[in-house]
TrEMBL record:
Positions that bind ATP: G50, P51, A52, G53, V54, G55, K56, T57
NCBIfam families reported in the protein's UniProt record: PRK04195.1-5, PRK04195.2-1
Domain of life: Archaea
Species annotation: Methanolapillus ohkumae
Record flagged with keyword Zinc-finger: no
UniProt-recorded name of the protein: Replication factor C large subunit
All copies of domain AAA+ ATPase, residue ranges: 42-190
Compositional bias per record (Basic and acidic residues), positions renumbered to this chain: 455-470, 483-527
Subunit structure: Heteromultimer composed of small subunits (RfcS) and large subunits (RfcL).
Family in the record: Belongs to the activator 1 small subunits family. RfcL subfamily.
Annotated stretches, region: Disordered: 455-474, 482-535
Length: 535
């Protein structure tokens, strides 16, 4: 049976040899480690920096194994106040000094490798004093120290000047494929090469993400084909997952806001991500909180509830300026109410509501399809339809009669209705609305100009190349001919209508005349009777 543990962790390389790419960096790291053999080197610490998921932490771990050094790791989740750093890293670094008489014969024995993860994040409230403490420890340490960072510029100049800097870079897709293949073989999963390449290319050089995507796509399968690969377009700079780390574990509000700002998520979508992952990140551990629920969960949901209040007001008043308050509350809220730090890797998951409807990508495609239908109906742009009209539709469709008519006019399908009605699934009620809407849809379709029938907008087709004819349907020439034909038939109809109107007015005039005469005949003699005969 396929293992459900985290594959990225399970297949973390144990030795330098197994690590893919970054050979130059590994060589420099090894040279630095060797320089500790006979004396304390000039650089007592190194900074391994580069993008996420390329093997920086893995290399540090492998180094400790290969050198036989004991590993002491201080993660960003740990409180890195000056005091803590002094207690953990400080005491570790002074250990040798204290017991030097016991191990001075062989400094390699008893050496400890101190690893500080996320060293570019030492300036937050909790890390206050962290940078200074690290700088002090580095200057005195008799044990090697590795700092790990994504952004080397996030580390103070004082620390950088004390360290050797080693740069790691993204891993090429074709090098990622064999690593994925190895995991597939070990899990007994048969896999198309093209499927692995698709995952690798989408990962943007991040092997951890590639491994996570592989595991997610392989869930419940024994064979993986290219068609099974549903990976959301990954922004190399910041994925939602990375932004969530900043929201939940970060200590710097602006960093969290910046990370969230780079995402292509509306606050309505973002809150679902945060809502889904909050209990995963702040688990309700009964050992720690035997008598109450983890206050970070209750506090976290309380701020999300407030954020949701603003989202509700946006929907109600169509005032999108309120989005900023919702955004701020949901991004900065969880870190502000957090009472403790959480270390360790959490596998964040997409909102379960989206999973019920397919992947987050299909959810987006559906929202775009809805926007395309609305934009066609209202001659509005896709952007306006997506951002302004969909929320407006959702509000209107809370009324059943509107739901039926709007759905019929735009010909929403059942899944689209589930989305617009904010239902959990296609309930009896939703199906009822759908069925009623179909009569209206049929009427609208029969009235729709011939050349529009069956045409999809570019978003509906997922095609960025402008409005095109769908396979097997009208070309531009045919559409032009259809327009001409329609003009002609409209003209004919107008002429016919004019003739009918003329005919009708003639008949009316005759009838009026008759009735006038008969009235005159019947009721009273015409006053001007005399003149009538007055030739
Ligand atoms: N170069 C690599 N070779 C093989 N596996 C790798 C490599 N880089 C990353 N991985 C896989 O990705 C996982 C995460 O890698 P690692 O923790 O070393 O990344 P990192 O560069 O430290 O990223 P971050 O900056 O996010 O901490 C590993 O457990 C391993 O499965």
């Amino acid at each position: 049976m396929m293992d459900s543990s985290d594959w990225a962790e399970k297949y973390r390389p144990q030795t330098f040899k197994e690590i893919i790419g970054n050979k130059k960096a590994l060589h420099e790291l090894r040279e630095w480690a060797d320089s500790w053999a006979s004396k304390i080197p000039e650089n007592r610490a190194v900074i391994l920096f580069g993008p996420a998921g390329v093997g920086k932490t893995t290399s540090a771990h492998a180094l400790s194994r290969e050198m036989g050094w004991e590993l002491i790791e201080l993660n960003a989740g740990d409180q890195r106040t000056a005091d803590v750093i002094d207690k953990i890293a400080g005491s570790a670094s002074r250990m040798k000094t204290l017991f030097s008489h016991e191990i001075s014969e062989n400094q390699l024995l008893g050496k400890r490798l101190i690893v500080l993860d996320e060293a570019d994040n030492l300036h937050g409230t909790y890390d206050k004093g962290g940078s200074k403490a690290i700088s002090d420890v580095i200057s005195k340490t008799t044990h090697p120290i590795i700092l790990i960072a994504n952004d080397v510029y996030g580390i103070t100049q004082t620390i950088r000047s004390q360290c050797l800097e080693i740069s790691f870079s993204s891993i090429q897709s074709r090098s990622i494929v064999p690593a994925l293949k190895r995991a597939c073989d070990a899990e007994g999963l048969s896999c198309e090469e093209s499927a692995l390449l698709k995952i690798a290319e989408n990962a943007g050089g991040d092997l951890r993400s590639a491994m996570n995507d592989l595991q997610a796509c392989a869930l419940g399968k024994t064979k993986l084909t290219e068609a099974d690969i549903v990976v959301s377009g990954r922004d190399v700079k910041e994925t939602v997952f990375k932004a969530l780390v900043k929201v939940f574990k970060g200590k710097n509000r602006q960093e969290a806001l910046d990370a969230v700002g780079t995402l292509d998520e509306t606050p309505d979508d973002l809150i679902q991500w945060i809502d889904e992952n909050l209990p995963l990140q702040f688990p309700d551990d009964k050992k720690i909180f035997p008598a109450q629920i983890n206050p970070d969960i209750s506090g976290g949901f309380a701020v999300l509830a407030r954020a949701d209040l603003y989202l509700g007001r946006v929907r109600l008043r169509q005032n999108y300026r309120l989005w900023r308050y919702a955004n701020y509350l949901m991004t900065v809220g969880p870190m502000s109410v957090r009472t403790r730090d959480y270390s360790g890797f959490i596998k964040y998951v997409p909102p379960s509501r989206w999973k019920r409807m397919g992947s987050s990508k299909s959810m987006r495609t559906m929202r775009d399809n809805i926007a395309a239908k609305i934009s066609r109906r209202h001659h509005a742009s896709l952007r306006v339809s997506r951002n302004e009209l969909i929320p407006y539709y959702m509000r209107l469709m809370e009324n059943e009669a509107y739901a039926v008519s709007l759905s019929g006019e735009s010909d929403f399908d059942l899944d689209e209705l589930v989305y617009l009605l904010r239902a959990k699934s296609a309930t009896k009620e939703v199906k009822g609305i759908y069925e009623k809407s179909q009569e209206i849809a049929a009427k609208y379709k029969s009235e729709e100009p011939e050349f529009f029938k069956g045409k999809l907008s570019r978003k509906e087709k997922g095609n960025e190349g402008g409005r095109e004819a769908v396979k097997g349907q009208a070309t531009i020439e045919e559409m032009a001919a259809a327009v001409e034909k329609k003009k002609e038939s409209d003209q004919k109809q107008q002429e016919l209508k004019k003739q009918q109107e003329l005919e009708q007015s003639k008949q009316k005039a005759e009838a009026d005349e008759k009735s006038k005469v008969s009235k005159q005949e019947k009721n009273e003699p015409p006053k001007n009777q005399k003149s009538l005969f007055d030739f």
